């Protein structure tokens, strides 16, 4: 296996946006600081959206003014339109993530626009970001299934992808917004991207709503560069510390895959990680517990409860390899 996985920490954004208790700016900055200290190097930190729609994301500019400055850390701001991109461009964000649902049913409920109109907004936002020297990710939401219109065909995703690629984003992401996807769909969507030379990098966003998120992540990690299935030999995977997260506009869209659980799985599978290597799993688990205390909500990940498992930890338990 020569494909590398890049972990994208989305806890400060997707991990918080669906929680009942909004966290203040300083607590969100503290979360980001703790994640950087545990090895996170690409972090979706804020969302430049209307605070009346997503109050958990209020104060994006204030958060970005206080986050640690580190040349090795890239901060992503989620945006939906030109105005959001303009706000991001005035901060220390180095990337924007522009979200476009692939169904009109979801797009109308989420953004009050059709998919075609949203693609026009995405193109304008992309240009603003590029003019500001920022990288651009474009996420195709509900690419695996829509809570309002049901299953989403590969043909439907292909039509939206063809338009989305016109702006030549640095990265295309396929999002399983409501956690209905299975590995077969991961491979099918990756195959779409492999046939489009405009797509330079793939990213996936999985939820574990129906306990398939980790299987999907392994499927993405195993796509391999053969035949161009993984442009640039790197695939990015979103994950949220503690497994927190969800979409406030998608019924029953529960938590993301947990960063520490995913890192444990990829380490065991021998999947090479881009950047500084395997993050501090026990440290991430502690961050998940810390975050749960502040939200008044228990972490959804499992390593936070079970702990890491290595030869050293087994020796500490008095176990042997023959057990």
TrEMBL record:
Residues 5-266 form the Pyruvate carboxyltransferase domain. Keywords: Lyase, Metal-binding. Residues 302-323 are annotated as: Disordered. PROSITE patterns: PYR_CT (PS50991). One of its GO terms (biological process) is L-leucine catabolic process. The keyword Lipid biosynthesis does not apply. The keyword RNA-binding does not apply. Belongs to the HMG-CoA lyase family. This is Hydroxymethylglutaryl-CoA lyase.
């Amino acid at each position: 296996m020569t494909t590398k996985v890049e972990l994208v920490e989305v806890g400060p954004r997707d991990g918080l946006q669906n929680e009942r208790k909004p966290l203040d700016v300083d607590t969100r900055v503290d979360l980001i600081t703790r994640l950087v200290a545990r090895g996170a190097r690409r972090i979706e930190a804020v969302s430049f959206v209307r605070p009346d729609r997503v109050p958990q994301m209020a104060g994006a500019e204030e958060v970005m003014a206080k986050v640690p400055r580190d040349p090795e850390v890239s901060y992503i701001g989620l945006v939906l339109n030109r105005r959001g991109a303009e706000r991001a461009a005035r901060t220390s964000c180095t990337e924007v993530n522009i979200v476009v649902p692939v169904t009109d049913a979801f797009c109308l409920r989420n953004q009050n626009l059709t998919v075609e109109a949203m693609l026009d907004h995405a193109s304008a936002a992309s240009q603003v970001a590029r003019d500001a020297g920022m990288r651009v990710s474009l996420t195709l939401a509900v690419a695996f299934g829509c809570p309002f219109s049901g299953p989403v065909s590969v043909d439907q995703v292909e039509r939206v992808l063809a338009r989305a690629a016109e702006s030549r984003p640095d990265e295309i992401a396929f999002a399983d917004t409501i956690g209905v996807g299975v590995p077969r769909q991961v491979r099918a969507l990756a195959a779409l991207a492999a046939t489009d030379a405009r797509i330079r990098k793939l990213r996936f966003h999985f939820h574990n709503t129906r306990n398939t998120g980790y299987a999907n992540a392994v499927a993405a990690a195993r796509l391999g560069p053969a035949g161009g299935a993984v442009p640039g030999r790197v695939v990015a995977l979103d994950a949220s510390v503690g497994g927190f997260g969800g979409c406030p506009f998608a019924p029953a869209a529960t938590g993301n895959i947990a960063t520490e659980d995913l890192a444990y799985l990829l380490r065991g599978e021998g999947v090479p990680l881009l950047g500084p290597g395997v993050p501090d799993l026990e440290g991430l688990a502690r961050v998940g517990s810390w975050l749960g205390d502040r939200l008044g909500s228990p972490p959804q990940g499992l390593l936070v409860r079970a702990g890491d498992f290595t030869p050293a930890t087994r020796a500490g338990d008095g176990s042997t390899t023959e057990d």
